[in-house]
Amino acid sequence: MINFFKKLLSFPFRRITRNANKTTTSAQKNRRHVAISLFIFAIALFAVFIFRFVWLITVNHVGGTNLKTMAKANYQSTEPVQAVRGTIYDRNGAIIAKDSSTYTIYAVLDKNQVDNNGNKLYVESKDFAKLTNFLSTNLNIDKSLIDSQLNSGKKQVQFGSKGSNITLEQMKKLQKQANDEKIVGLGFTANISRSYPFGNFASQFIGIARPKDENGTQVLKGDMGLEKAFDNILSGQNGKETYQKDFYGRPIPGTTKEIKKVKNGQDVYTSLDAQLQKNLEGYMDKAATDTGAQQLSGTLVDAHTGEILATSQRPTYTATTINDAEKQKYFTWNSLLSQSAFEPGSTFKTFLMAGALDSGKVNLNETYQRKLQVYDTPINDWDVTEHKSYTLPETVTYAQGFALSSNIGMSKIEMNMGNALWGNYLNKFKFGLKVRAGLDGENPGALPSSNPVTQIQSSFGQGVAVTPLQLIRGWTAIAGNGMLEPHIVSKVVDPNTKTSLTSKAEVVGHPVSNDAASGVRDLMLTVNTDPVYGTSYSTSGDSEQNLAAGPLFMVNGEPAAVKTGTAQIASPTGGYMSGSQDYLYSAVVMYPAKNPDFIFYMNVKIPTESWTLKYIARVANPLLTSAEAMKNDLSVSADTDTKAGKVTIENYKGKDSGDTADSLRRTVLSPVIIGTGAKVTAQSIAEGEKVSANSRILLLTNDKDQVMPDMYDWSKKEVEQLANWFGIKVTYEGSGNKVLTQSIEAATNVKKGQTLKITLGN
Prior knowledge:
Layout: H1 2-22, H2 27-59, E1 61-62, E2 65-66, H3 67-75, E3 76-81, E4 88-89, E5 95-108, H4 128-139, H5 143-150, E6 156-158, H6 168-180, E7 186-195, H7 203-206, E8 209-214, E9 217-222, H8 225-229, H9 231-235, E10 239-244, E11 257-260, E12 267-270, H10 274-291, E13 295-302, E14 308-314, H11 349-359, E15 367-369, E16 372-374, E17 377-379, E18 395-397, H12 398-403, H13 407-417, H14 419-428, H15 452-457, H16 468-478, E19 483-484, E20 489-494, E21 499-502, E22 507-509, H17 514-529, E23 537-538, E24 550-551, E25 554-555, E26 558-559, E27 561-568, E28 583-591, E29 598-605, H18 614-634, E30 643-644, E31 646-648, H19 657-666, E32 670-674, E33 680-683, E34 690-692, E35 696-701, H20 716-726, E36 729-733, E37 738-742, E38 755-761
Helix pairs in contact: 1-2, 4-5, 10-18, 11-13, 11-17
């Protein structure tokens, strides 16, 4: 192409030269020839340009460049529309986490930065000292850092972490003050961020969302806790819009067009109550200071619904202290509620006694001698002396043994039950299985090994690993309302459709009879009221709480039902830690004792101050008193003026069973995993169906064994589905819509062809 143009341009001159050499034509004729040649050249050149122009219009490419795209970019722009991340609320609509803007302060040093009138828009060197004093005074930025940045030779500089995360209110105040002091060259860059108005508020449980780069756009992504677990629900989906722009790239008014609708994130209403949570945080701060413990955790639960009303732990962090959180000794990012398992100690005796009463394997009035050797392992009680005797009577009843938290008594009961029966009750209470409340990174805990000594020790809470969330699930059954699924969310609201999914109490089993549960609560009351054997009965009272000698756990002048615990802690080098206070101290408290409204559990790991159970009582008593006073308000969650939404069922076959259950839980459905297989092989609700919140969906797994689930509260249709999967026959007694009893016990293996008898009721 280049050679062609060279020849074309030189053509007239070459022709003139050739003609001049060949002829002796007159000057007039030569001029005519030149004119004709130039005319022909002009026509040819014009034809070439026309051809090229038509070619460019038709093809729209020059080399590898798309001219149409370039032209479009000159007058049209497409921009993403950022979705608003959903807000996290407490149950009554108080904001826990919301989107906000923060600002980073910067100084312009580029001397070319002036306005149209020549006014300087940069910081002059003569004003460096003034600016240093301004930043140091108002933002507490180190003067040496400011000085090094101002003299760095850069065109624009920032001032470290203290010059970032400035709130809107701070930014406006700084702008005004800078103007008043005639400081020129300061500016602020806006950043997307997440605001946590309450500060110290269930931090490891709620978690945090941080800005992250996603395809060149800054978006907020959940990093821990509920923010991470519910990230897909909170995040929403970005939209897109186009607009025409002028020569200077400015949008032309009235030309904006939406090409992809933005879908804002859904709002999550947690089960937490802001007032109770704030109260708990204050009590936990004091307990942490008073005990000097390595770690503490505490959780309050509605015994009628399974909802987590308040939960906290120490050490902890806030959004403003998060960068220094790891400097705290014994700090963990894990939520102690669900992500860390431990040996619970004597609070676990509640489950052993529940199983023994349910199976008739204990006579509470029968006495026993407090001496026991299991193979080569002696079992001792806490009041053993150096002479191997006891400070309390050596012969006691099993009821008294529960009150004094006798390891020997519980061991004897377990031996009478047998390992298989005890193991069956552990399965009924679902220990060793994740709760699947929708949280991220949940720890499944561990059942005791087959070692006979470990089996017996598990009766008093050693050799078994649990999380507080698992304990709470089990204690809801002992509170007498069936075993409830712990709920962390009360409602999910979609602002795009103005629909909501509202959580209801969910029964996930009935491991022991109502009589057995009532019997355990009666025994727990003696722990608090028996002046001889009760481990939470104080002979000195507690002046700080104005309590005279008597029960330590008192609410509205009434004793609560209690079980205390002192658990040995595994040593990193093997065996157990041996320091005088190297224990996990704990208590579970139910109030009122006869028909509990609330369950509170707290543990304290390795205190440095002399241990007393009063430390836990000083948290439990005022918190439960507040909760009881508020209980009528707790039954009503925030009204969001929305209509009931639906959830569209997907195809879950071949997917991870646990992940699927967690995902369904976050959409306020009630998944039930059948078996312990890793993959889903069948589901009780077909793909594409739209169902209401709290609908139960059965997920069959690829477990090699067919293990009977606890079908308490199931519908007849759900029973028929399981029978079809298992190949068993079903007969029914009674009338009603819900399962009350089943002839094949939960957690036992099922063979094809077996007959299952179901009692129905309401």
